[in-house]
Write a structure and sequence with these properties.
By secondary structure, this protein is α/β, with parallel strands linked by helices. Helices cover about 50% and strands about 15% of the residues. The chain has an 8-stranded mixed beta sheet with strand order 3-2-1-4-7-6-8-5, with helices on both faces. It has a two-stranded antiparallel sheet with strand order 9-10. α2 links the parallel β2 and β3. The longest helix has about 50 residues. The protein is globular and about 90 Å long. About 30% of the residues are buried.
Length: about 375
């Protein structure tokens, strides 16, 4: 820590980490060194003890490394964030997955956006390290982002928020932790802004990682009932369209067109390749199948997440608002109960004094008859 200057921005950068192998450790350490000048970096490491030691040795000076508490909650990322909360002293906090790569100008802009909002949702885009080409599976998954952008906004692997919004934490027993945090901030009366032209790079996953995410991403839609119903309807519609080639061809063209709308929205053409829209039909077919697989997992109790089963994708907005209202009412109810208790104590303390006073007043007002002794006759003794 000696010789490391304070970060320029009023910003924490929280990185929950849980690795099984250290293939990208050098690249991650280099990235953290590039942003430590601008934000106070906190890494919460939930990896094995031997890996944690290697990570601490590889990370540059000036970075705080904490051990995650695996018993805090079932979602490891949320457990990492909650472990960092007591250390957060700056006004703003970025929470990011280990594959997210902010540029300094992104951090400056996101702090500016937080002047007008309590939580900011940027837009991720895949960007391989160096001059490598974007792999096929990253283009496939980019189609998901494009369709999300066409109908609203995407859900990235990073969020930025005012640190005060993390003081009471959020539910860590859900799968879709970013949606849970967004809804929690809304339930607390916070302002949420989706900044669709704030593009933050993300390293593409491996092919194995991509395959592992297919059903889990589909399970996230369980937290959005209307969307989930639409996704469940895709497979029957595709099966019906397959019997009529013209309809199937028309559906393919429409899906590509929808993805292209998302690519062109909010300057998306600057980061999303033109061929990404062509992958949209494949992604839609994948989601049509995975939606039914996720429904089966839901009926069986949830999806497997690092050896644990998570049944809830995210709590509903209505439920979170009710939880927040109940939390606000508890201090008021306790205060009213304390006031009632004190009033009762005062009433009981005043009761004997009032009773004695009433008795004395009644005694003064009562005329007692005089006692007359009988007269004695002479000679009586």
């Amino acid at each position: 820590m000696t010789g490391v200057s304070a970060p320029i921005l009023p910003l924490h950068y929280v990185l929950p980490l849980r690795w099984r192998e250290d293939k990208g450790l050098a690249e991650l350490a280099s990235y953290l060194e590039s942003i430590r000048e601008f934000a106070e970096v906190i890494v919460v490491d939930g990896s094995d003890p031997e890996q944690r030691q290697r990570h601490r040795a590889a990370f540059p000076d000036g970075i705080t490394v904490l051990d995650a508490d695996p018993t805090a909650c079932r979602n490891g990322k949320v457990a990492g964030v909650l472990a960092a909360v007591p250390r957060l002293r700056r006004a703003n906090t970025v929470i990011a997955d280990d594959d997210v790569r902010y540029e300094p100008e992104d951090l400056f802009r996101i702090v500016g956006e937080l002047d007008r909002a309590d939580l900011v949702i940027p837009q991720n885009h895949f960007s391989p390290a160096g001059a490598q080409r974007l792999p096929w599976h990253a283009r496939w998954d980019t189609a998901r982002s494009l369709i999300n952008r066409a109908f609203g906004s995407d859900y990235p692997g990073t969020l930025a928020l005012r640190t005060s919004m993390l003081e009471d934490g959020y539910d860590g027993d859900v799968l879709f932790e970013n949606l849970e945090l967004i809804r929690t901030v809304k339930a607390r009366g916070g302002i949420v802004r989706s900044v669709r032209d704030l593009f933050v790079a993300r390293r593409p996953p491996t092919v194995a990682g991509f395959a592992d995410q297919r059903v889990r991403q589909a399970y996230d839609s369980c937290a959005q009932p209307l969307r989930f119903l639409v996704e469940l309807s895709l497979l029957p519609m595709l099966a019906a369209a397959a019997r009529r080639p013209r309809r199937l061809a028309a559906a393919v063209v429409i899906v590509i067109g929808v993805a292209e709308v998302g690519r062109r929205r909010a300057a998306g053409t600057t980061v999303f390749p033109a061929t990404a829209s062509l992958w949209a039909p494949l992604w839609l077919a994948e989601r049509a199948v995975c939606a039914w697989l996720s429904l089966g997992l839901r009926l069986r109790g949830g999806v497997d997440y690092h050896g644990q089963r998570l049944g809830v994708a995210a709590n509903s907005q209505r439920r979170l608002r009710q939880i927040h209202r109940d939390r606000l009412q508890r201090p008021e109810q306790a205060q009213h109960a304390e006031q009632a208790r004190r009033a009762e104590q005062a009433r009981r303390a005043d009761r004997p004094r009032h009773t004695d006073q009433a008795q004395r007043t009644a005694g003064r007002q009562t005329i007692r008859p005089a006692t007359v002794e009988p007269s004695r006759k002479v000679g009586e003794s």
